[in-house]
């Protein structure tokens, strides 16, 4: 049995669920913590969203529960393996003390021949993205 290559982290954010959800689903914020194709536009992420970098990769929303869970399926055409279970999952919860928590899960890259490389890259992405999401959500006002 191969090892699991899933990046997992939880981060506490001092902001309401709805504010964190905004940062996860509005392109004007997403562009500050992740990359979007130049021609993506400013349409909010919704259950039918597909984000495509032609010839490179595609992210398709496969689960969309407002203020709770957003899951993307990742497709990379250059992967030799047939992959159907690699994705990005963002989960929002509130604890008993009223703290908002963002859970991030990326992977599982174990199915890929170069899974370790993708896992390592995703660890770095998650650390940077989670911190930026936290900063953006906790700001009272964002000026563009």
UniProtKB/TrEMBL annotation:
<dbReference type="InterPro" id="IPR023393">
    <property type="entry name" value="START-like_dom_sf"/>
</dbReference>
<protein>
    <submittedName>
        <fullName>SRPBCC domain-containing protein</fullName>
    </submittedName>
</protein>
């Amino acid at each position: 049995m191969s090892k699991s290559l899933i990046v997992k982290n939880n981060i506490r954010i001092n902001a309401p669920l709805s504010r964190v959800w905004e940062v996860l689903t509005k392109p004007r914020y997403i562009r500050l913590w992740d990359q979007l194709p130049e021609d993506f536009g400013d349409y909010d992420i919704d259950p039918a969203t597909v984000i495509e970098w032609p010839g490179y990769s595609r992210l398709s929303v496969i689960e969309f529960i407002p203020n709770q869970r957003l899951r993307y399926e990742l497709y990379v055409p250059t992967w030799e393996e047939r992959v159907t279970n690699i994705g990005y999952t963002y989960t929002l919860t509130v604890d008993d003390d009223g703290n908002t928590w963002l859970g991030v899960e990326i992977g599982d890259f174990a199915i890929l021949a170069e899974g370790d490389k993708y896992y390592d890259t995703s660890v770095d992405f998650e650390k940077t993205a989670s911190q930026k999401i936290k900063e953006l959500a906790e700001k009272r006002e964002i000026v563009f």
